[in-house]
Here is the input.
Amino acid sequence: MKYFIELFSSVVSWTKANKFKTFVFSISTILAVQYLLLPNIRLQALRKNNPIRTALMYQRADEAESTGKKFSLDQRWVPLSKISIHLVNAVIVAEDGTFYRHDGVDWYEVEESIKKNFQKGKAARGGSTITQQLVKNLFLSTSKDRM
Here is the structure.
């Protein structure tokens, strides 16, 4: 027991002396845990199967129900090969102008968003890419402050 108390004490001392390293380690740990908890099986399934419903669809259905409005889905999946490449490129450029120059996350825009949001004291600017928007629509809500 004495060993654990000494270990805990030394960890607390190190944490106080190395606040930045502690912050970076904490954020890295949180991101690693989040990555490991991602719904990987569902993501892999999206390579071959279109989702039946997304979190956004469920949210819109709940919103309609709570206001007494009728909600119905009328979706028809169309292969990408059947859509004009000009339309595909227009949507990509309109939504994420640097889509072909990053790996799913535009770190410059994320950094700029963090700066702006800290300045404003709220979620004032987004920095999301098409990839991030897809993930949000599949698994999260449209809220800026909650899931």
Q: What stands out?
A: The helical segments are 2-17, 19-37, 40-45, 55-66, 85-95, 107-120, 130-139. The two ends are 40 Å apart (CA to CA). The chain has two domains: 1-37, 40-147.
